[in-house]
Design brief:
It contains two helices and 20 strands. It starts with 5 loop residues before the first helix and ends with a strand. It is α+β, with helices and mostly antiparallel strands.
Length: about 260
């Protein structure tokens, strides 16, 4: 029997390695090709847009609605499909603008996918998006609303920037609990009660509409101080001028945690 020389063994190993490298490259190309094909297969025109105006019953709900995040927020550059899970079916889409640019907090990540909070009903709606075609940023801020003590807190990098008494939802029109986010920042001088309004990605659980709008919960000011510390609103959070001035500087997409403490 002929003995196999060491250089022949090495040559066989190199040849096998070359084959494995080629197969690996083919597999990667196949995966990327499948991903592009899957994206092309989604007809965005058939999907409902997630916005503060819409209700999307099929949206998966936030599995951990009182948890903190690491501050990652993302902005879709164009209409982007929303999926019920990674590599699952698309159930809706999200656009680049709401009240200004759309910035969404990321609550979960999984191998090229991001789970984000959504601005549409029901409250605590989420969706998975592909981790491409997005702008990334990080918010070092956190807003906490406590409906029990009727206070609002603002933090930056874990450091308190202030705590203020706040007006919260009345018993029949409560401020919805759970984590949501700063969806927009509006200045409307026609609004006598508060020209500055900061809409959140949450809605009244008892009112379908309010003031001609879809019942979007917001943080805003109020001309009378007697409302601060009271459960008196239709679901919005009313804050003093000094608090509103600081909250207005917080970047869109910042996490807002609402609890009953």
């Amino acid at each position: 029997m002929r003995k196999v020389r060491a250089d022949e063994r090495g040559g066989g190993s190199i040849g096998a390695l070359a084959v494995l490298l080629v197969l690996g490259a083919v597999a990667v190309v196949g995966i990327l090709g499948n991903r592009k094909h899957a994206e092309a297969a989604v007809d965005l025109t058939t999907l409902t847009g997630s916005s503060t105006q819409m209700t999307i019953p099929t949206a998966p709900l936030d599995p951990d609605p009182f948890a903190l995040t690491d501050g990652l927020v993302v902005h879709p550059r164009g209409q982007t499909a929303l999926y019920s899970a990674p590599d699952a079916d698309a159930f809706a889409k999200i656009g680049p603008t709401q009240f200004g640019p759309t910035w969404l907090p990321v609550v979960e990540e999984s191998d090229g996918w991001l789970r984000v909070l959504l601005p549409s009903k029901p409250n605590r709606s989420t969706g998975w998006i592909r981790d491409d075609g997005l702008d990334r940023a990080s918010s070092s801020y956190l807003i906490r609303v406590h409906t029990g003590s009727r206070t609002i807190e603002l933090f930056e990098q874990g450091k308190s920037l202030g705590t203020w008494r706040a007006g919260v939802g009345a018993k029949k029109t409560p401020t919805p609990p759970g984590r949501t986010f700063l969806l927009g920042s509006i200045i409307d001088n026609k609004r006598s009660a508060s020209p500055i309004v900061l809409p959140l990605g949450a809605h009244s659980p008892t009112l379908d509409t309010f003031g001609g709008g879809p019942g979007t919960v917001a943080i805003h000011g109020w001309p009378r101080p007697d409302v601060f510390g009271a459960a008196i609103s239709a679901g919005c959070v009313r804050v003093p001028k000094v608090a509103l001035a600081k909250l207005q500087q917080v970047p869109l997409g910042t996490l807002v945690l609402i609890d009953s403490k």
